[in-house]
Amino acid sequence: MTRLNFILFFTLIAVCLGVITSQHKARKLYFELEQQEELSKKFETEYEQLQLEQSTWAMHSRVEELATKKLQMQVPDAKRIQVILLDERVR
């Protein structure tokens, strides 16, 4: 009877250690998940800011202003504009 008690006792200790280890790993992984979600939110915010900045830099009025002032470009006369139609098979 005492032999069975020792076997059950050591089995109980092993199971308890297993539960403790698995809970520790679960808490550690949950903490990592929270950190990654926070980092993901920061990246999303930065991405949105970059999209806004890109749309600002690519505004037609700004591009036209830079073309006329810095590059000294001019809009051609309507007589000098030629429209070229592409063959549908080329597309």
Can you walk through the features of this model?
The protein has helices at residues 2-57, 60-69. The chain is rod-shaped, with a radius of gyration of 34 Å. The model has no long low-confidence stretch (mean pLDDT 91). The chain has 2 helices and no strands. The termini are far apart. With 91 residues, the chain is an all-alpha fold.
Number of helices: 2
- Overall average residue pLDDT: 91
Which sheet architecture does the biggest sheet show? none
> What structural category arises from helix and sheet content?
mainly alpha
Cα-atom Rg, whole angstroms?
Answer: 34 Å
**How are helices and strands ordered from N to C?**
HH
How would you sum up the global shape? rod-shaped
Q: State the end-to-end CA separation.
A: 88 Å
Q: State the share of residues found in helices, binned by percent.
A: over 70%
**What's the total number of strands?**
0
Point out poorly predicted stretches. none
Strand fraction band? under 5%
Feature tags:
mainly alpha, 2 helices, 91 residues
Gist of the model:
This protein is an all-alpha fold. Helix content is 73%, strand content 0%.
Outline the secondary-structure elements.
Layout: H1 2-57, H2 60-69
